[in-house]
Design goal:
Layout: E1 2-10, E2 13-19, E3 24-29, H1 35-45, E4 61-68, H2 72-80, E5 91-98, E6 103-107, E7 110-111, H3 114-120, E8 125-128, H4 130-135, H5 139-150, H6 152-180, H7 182-202, H8 208-220, H9 222-237, H10 243-255, H11 262-290, H12 296-316, H13 320-338, H14 340-384, E9 393-405, E10 408-417, E11 425-426, H15 427-430, H16 433-449, E12 455-459, H17 467-483, E13 486-489, H18 493-496, E14 501-510, E15 513-521, H19 524-536, H20 541-554
Parallel strand pairs: 3-13, 3-14, 8-12, 12-13
Antiparallel strand pairs: 1-2, 1-4, 4-5, 5-6, 6-7, 9-10, 10-11, 14-15
């Protein structure tokens, strides 16, 4: 329930304070007096987007504070969000915007975003302005209103359809991507198979090229190696001048005196060790010399192998390790392609499964919408009698779409007939301004009754009506105010007569500046004078008499 609205420097309103009645709070005033600006301030507090043009020209900032009493559901939601509210305690939204465009918004003293306030705004108040009547001509809005009327179950079903639609679209995209890549996939598979065959034919081993290069270098120099080995062997083993024999002679020469001194024995031991190592070296040289046979066939085989390895390296990465890695990748690519038919079958199955789930969710949503549509038709027609549309008809047409979308499998359109016997037609084609306002009022009332009670704010919902119709609409507003909170901006006396609190907006010009004041009129005479002004433009006796009659009727 709305409790209080405080406004500073918003538009032409320098300062205003409004206490809301628990029933009907009515705002009236001359045309152009700024009544809609007051609703703009309320919407601003509820998170509506705005700009710096709404800051009063001679002020540094605009400020709006809305105090409200949350219902149990909203109070619990706020407490779960960390706001320290006791049951029955009032809450407040304070919003500011500066001339420089800097804005801030606080909920219960804590900084929040405007989108966070917009999220809870439907649980505080529903603002129905003149543009709502134009939105009523949009089929997209019809579907939104129908779903809101259907309640949480229908909204949950719509959310399920939206989720299923996203999953189905994702599955179709994946399948389409795989199918569209068929030619590229075949080319990649062919290249992979060629690489696998090339590499398998050579069967390279890690480090093999380095080993073969070393062996070929040896064979290319085998004659030089043999000559060097023979020379080394002769140096060690020649009968007259060999190093091994000389070492043996030296050991023999010292043999007789080894016991004379320890150092001589040590030298003799060193010479004996060198002779032993010389014999070992001579044996190794002999074996190496035996292996120095030149084999042209081996050289040819090595050259051919190295050529094959070099070809692989040129084609697949530059090194044997890169060739082996490329082979692994090619095996993987080929394996994936060979599973392509299986993968396509999986994707097609997933696509069909997602589409089947979407159809199921959409079918359930359609059934819930049809049931809600019948109920909405009965409720709206039931309101018509109280709005001087007793002969009017209302129906909801659900047209099946060619393809299920995020909002379901159908579009909705509201149809209306003003008189008995007339065919129901789309609102945009037949409804006059006054009829459109009344149909909108009927829908708003029905929707408000279908969910948690919030304040209903009507911004000149009475456009295009007058006379007996205005009396009927006013009476309906009066009955709404008995069971809930209503805020109404109006130019009709037949609506203003139902006020529990009545405010008049007046435009004033002082020192070249224009401002709007908001003044409550509380006495019977003040109200009668304002009602009379609204009836005839002045407060002559006939108009005053009629005004008193209307007020008495409302009482």
């Amino acid at each position: 329930m709305l409790k209080h609205l405080h406004v500073e420097n918003y538009g032409l309103i320098a300062r205003a304070d409004v206490d809301f009645a628990s029933g009907a709070t009515i705002f009236t005033g001359e045309t152009g007096s700024g009544k809609t600006m007051l609703v703009g301030a309320l919407s601003f507090a509820l998170g509506a987007r705005t700009d710096t043009a709404m800051v009063r020209a001679d002020a540094p900032r605009a400020l709006v504070e809305l105090t409200f009493e949350p219902d149990d559901a909203l109070g619990e939601r706020l407490r779960l969000d960390g706001f320290l509210l006791e049951p029955g305690e009032e809450a407040a939204i304070l919003r500011e915007v500066t001339q420089a465009g800097k804005s801030s918004i606080r909920l219960c003293g804590r900084s929040v975003t405007a989108s966070a306030v917009r999220d809870i705004a439907p649980q505080i108040a529903e603002v129905v302005g003149q543009h709502e009547a134009q939105r009523l001509l949009s089929g997209a809005y019809h579907l939104e209103m129908l779903d809101r009327f259907g309640g949480e179950g229908l909204v949950a079903a719509r959310d399920a359809v939206e989720h299923a639609c996203v999953l189905a679209a994702t599955a179709r995209e994946m399948l389409g991507r795989v199918e569209s890549q068929e030619r590229t996939a075949v080319e990649r598979y062919t290249r992979a198979r060629d690489a696998i065959d090339d590499i398998a034919a050579v069967a390279p081993q890690a480090g093999e090229d380095d080993r073969l290069t070393v062996r070929r270098r040896y064979l290319d120099n085998v004659e030089r190696v043999a000559l060097a080995l023979r020379s080394a062997r002769d140096a060690l083993c020649a009968e007259d001048s060999g190093a091994v024999g000389a070492l043996g002679s030296a050991v023999a020469a010292l043999g007789g005196v080894r016991s004379v001194a320890p150092e001589i024995d040590a030298i003799a031991g060193q010479l004996a060790a060198l002779q032993s190592e010389g014999n070992d070296a001579a044996a190794n040289i002999a074996r190496a010399l035996d292996a120095t046979e030149y084999d042209p066939a081996e050289v040819e085989a090595i050259n051919a192998r190295l050529d094959a390895l070099d070809r692989l390296k040129r084609m697949y990465g530059g090194t044997i390790d890169a060739v082996l890695e490329h082979g692994i990748d090619a095996e993987r690519t080929a394996s994936e392609h060979e599973r392509r038919d299986e993968r396509l079958a999986e994707l097609r199955a997933q696509c069909e499964e997602a589409q089947s789930a979407l159809r199921a969710h959409a079918g359930r949503l359609t059934a819930l919408r049809r049931a809600a549509a019948k109920k909405l038709e009965r409720r709206v027609v039931g309101e018509f009698a109280d709005l001087a549309l007793a002969s009017g008809g209302f129906s909801v047409a659900l047209e099946t779409l060619d393809e299920i979308g995020r909002c379901g499998a159908e579009r909705a359109e509201f149809l209306f007939s003003a008189n008995a016997g007339e065919a129901a037609r789309p609102l945009a084609r037949i409804v006059s301004g006054g009829e459109l306002s009344r149909v909108l009022l009927a829908l708003v009332v029905v929707l408000a009754q279908a969910r948690e009670r919030v304040a209903l704010v009507f911004d000149e919902i009475d456009a295009g009506i007058g006379g007996a119709t205005a009396l009927a609409v006013g009476a309906r507003i009066g009955r709404l105010a008995r069971s809930g909170q209503v805020v109404c901006i109006t130019h009709l006396a037949q609506l203003a007569m139902w006020a529990s609190r009545h405010y008049v907006l007046e435009k004033e010009e002082r020192a070249g500046a224009t401002s709007i004041s908001v003044r409550e009129i509380a006495t019977k005479e003040e109200r009668a004078n304002e009602i009379a002004r609204m009836l005839s433009g002045d407060s002559r006796s006939a108009a005053l008499k009629h005004a008193h009659e209307l007020l008495a009727q409302a009482r």
